[in-house]
């Protein structure tokens, strides 16, 4: 998606440790016009009418998933990284290690929002080592639901996450794949 790549080059900031900051337009402050185009592109890449839910993980994927959902006409469900008093009843749970936060989370999802009748599209902002996406796939499997695919805004192609997901036979669509990144530059596939 050229519009996204151009925006990453213009406003993204590469930091030491293979960190790409896109917080000025994607995951802190959100450029709704850009994210609207991202939603349209996900719909184009996942034309199936079987999709009944979009699943993401808090927090950065929620806005993107919500805007994309209007093109699928389905609800968004997001996995939470912490238990709250508002989350009652039976839950699915899995462990996810965050690349950026260097922390392991117990990720939870209420069983009343995902079941064996659902056909799920996962949407998230980044794919690096694949831990978050694998955790969401684990929740889908625990629910007995069907995964229809995963839509990622930015994939770090030089890390193993994308290859690991593709090797599992999951339909993965990344809108911008970074081939290489140094402390001062990046190159797309």
From TrEMBL:
Places the protein is found: Cytoplasm
Protein's UniProt keywords contain Secreted: no
GO BP annotation list: purine ribonucleoside salvage; xanthine metabolic process; XMP salvage
GO molecular function term, any single one: xanthine phosphoribosyltransferase activity
Primary localisation category: cytoplasm
EC numbers for this chain: 2.4.2.22
Family: Belongs to the purine/pyrimidine phosphoribosyltransferase family. Xpt subfamily.
Function statement: Converts the preformed base xanthine, a product of nucleic acid breakdown, to xanthosine 5'-monophosphate (XMP), so it can be reused for RNA or DNA synthesis.
PANTHER family: HYPOXANTHINE/GUANINE PHOSPHORIBOSYLTRANSFERASE, XANTHINE PHOSPHORIBOSYLTRANSFERASE
Subunit structure: Homodimer.
NCBIfam families: PRK09219.1, XPRTase
The name this protein goes by in its record: Xanthine phosphoribosyltransferase
Source organism (scientific name): Dorea phocaeensis
Gene designation per UniProt: xpt
């Amino acid at each position: 998606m050229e519009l996204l790549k151009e925006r990453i080059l213009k406003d993204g900031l590469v930091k030491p440790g293979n960190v790409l900051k896109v917080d000025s337009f994607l995951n802190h402050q959100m450029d709704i016009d850009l994210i609207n185009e991202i939603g349209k592109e996900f719909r184009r890449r996942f034309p199936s009418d079987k999709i009944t839910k979009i699943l993401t993980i808090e927090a950065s994927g929620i806005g993107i998933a919500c805007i994309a959902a209007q093109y699928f006409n389905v609800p968004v469900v997001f996995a939470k990284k912490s238990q709250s008093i508002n989350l009652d009843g039976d839950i699915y749970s899995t462990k996810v290690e965050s690349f950026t936060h260097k922390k392991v989370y117990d990720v939870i999802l209420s069983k009343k929002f995902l079941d064996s009748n659902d056909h799920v599209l996962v949407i998230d902002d980044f794919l690096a080592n694949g831990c978050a996406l694998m955790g969401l796939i684990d929740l889908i499997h625990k629910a007995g639901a069907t995964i229809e695919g995963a839509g990622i805004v930015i994939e770090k192609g030089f890390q193993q996450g994308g290859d690991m997901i593709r090797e599992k036979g999951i339909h993965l669509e990344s809108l911008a794949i970074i081939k290489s990144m140094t402390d001062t530059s990046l190159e797309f596939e």
